[in-house]
Design goal:
By secondary structure, the chain is mainly α. Helices cover 53% and strands 10% of the residues. The protein is built from 8 helices and 7 strands; from the N terminus they run H-E-E-H-H-H-E-E-H-H-H-E-H-E-E. The chain is globular, with a radius of gyration of 36 Å.
């Protein structure tokens, strides 16, 4: 009888220990899972916040990045957008400088599209069989001893300081944006020599006017 009571007591002790270990195991699982649940909740909250904000307007073919692409550093949330861009024109440094300078010199007082148009004309000439094969040669081309671009002849080409807007306009042109309708010439009628303007009117096809420039081909 005594032995039986001792045996029952031992079995009860084992059962109690098993219950305690089981409960501790449940707590351990809960404690281990809690950080992950908090992280998931935090990401959900961040995604709600991100989706609630207006994303930048995207052009056709561009892809916005969701919460999986949000860089998290400490408590800072840094959304970013990666858009692959490829230049249509890969110019050597001297040609790039020539393009920037002639755009600034010819269209420094124009808006960014006006600057883009001047860059388009230079690049259109580069692609045309009747003009030289490099940007520098296009910019410095002379016909019958006369420079094709007046800033080269009057020296303002060498004195300009290239603005950020000009850089942006030239970059747009190098990426392939062309709003020139194929223009190969432009003139500021208000400031140009009257005989030169008459030559434009007689020999070229008028396209449009933007700012102070009229464009022809």
């Amino acid at each position: 009888m005594y032995k039986k009571a001792v045996g029952m007591l031992i079995l009860s002790g084992f059962a109690l220990m098993a219950c305690v270990l089981c409960l501790r195991g449940v707590d351990a699982v809960r404690l281990c899972a809690e950080p992950a649940e908090r992280l998931k909740l935090g990401l959900w909250e961040l995604e709600e916040e991100w989706v609630g904000k207006a994303e930048p307007a995207l052009e056709d073919g561009e892809k916005g990045l969701g919460i999986a692409d949000v860089a998290v550093s400490g408590q800072r949330i840094v959304p970013f957008l990666v858009v692959e861009q490829q230049y249509i024109y890969d110019l050597p440094d001297e040609d790039l400088e020539a393009l920037l300078r002639i755009v600034e010199a010819e269209a420094g007082n124009e808006d960014e599209d006006g600057k883009l148009l001047v860059a388009n004309v230079v690049l259109n000439r580069l692609n045309h069989k009747s003009f030289p094969d490099s940007v520098s040669e296009v910019v410095f081309q002379r016909e019958k001893g006369i420079s094709q671009f007046s800033p080269v002849s009057n020296g303002s080409y060498y004195r300009v300081e290239v603005s950020e807007e000009t850089v942006n306009a030239v970059e747009r042109a190098l990426l392939g944006e062309d709003i020139s309708q194929g223009a190969l010439y432009f003139v500021a009628r208000k400031y140009a020599d009257s005989s030169k303007v008459k030559w434009f009117d007689r020999n070229l096809t008028y396209l449009f006017k933007h700012g102070g420039h009229e464009f022809f081909k």
